[in-house]
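Before the break, one more example. Copy the sequence into your notebook; we will annotate it together after we see the structure.
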Amino acid sequence: MCLFLLFLLASAGWLGTHLAAADNAPTTPILVELFTSEGCSSCPPADALLEKMDTLQPVPGAQLIVLSEHVDYWNHDGWTDPYSSASITDRQSSYVHALGLKTPYTPQFLVDGTEELQAHDNEQVVQLLQKAASAPKVPMRLESVSVEPGNPAIVRGRVESDVSSEKHKADVYVAIALDHAESQVSRGENSGRHLSHVAVLTELTKVGKLEPGKSFGQDFHIKLKLPGPGPMNLRIVAFDQESGPGKVIGVVLKSVPVN
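Here is what the structure looks like once it is written out:
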């Protein structure tokens, strides 16, 4: 919470200066990924910051689309994070390689697949989100999204992208996330703490490839691995990302409608 209040104070001048112009500008979606773990004592403040970004949407002219991605390499320290997976750890490791970093760590914020957000540096946060908000994105849509109950439940829908002016191909992903999740941690570095998360990634599926100069449309159906999430507790995020993983050139968010 303190980090976010400092962020708001640091950005207040920029917000006031640009608010009138931003009201008339199109909204630019920005993908903010947080690699985190319930076994990491420095992660809860970052989790809270991500939730505030999601709730308050503090950047005029931008929509912050967030994903909480729980790695599994903290699980050996006494607490098994129920939302963690090896595939998320692999995704972070791919970023480490692509960005030329020394090692994966938590908490780690990434903006649009190419920039690390330093949550302790309020000026850098403002500048980075301002830069991301000014970058054009390929328009995307999620259509006909629904959840078929069952064991497992299945999320169905269609993802579409407009014609891309980018020179490089991009992979098209659909991410399924829990809108909200909580844990009472009984062991490890966060023992005794009640933790809250937003947009917790549970499934990430590549559904196709966006070719330069072409539009994209693809139906999808994704089986849910985690039991129990109802339609009120799911959100769907689709994004176009250059291989590497590289730059996110388009992203869209949709809540699952109640049937």
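Helices lie at 2-23, 43-56, 86-99, 122-134. The two ends are 35 Å apart (CA to CA). Try to locate both features in your own notes.
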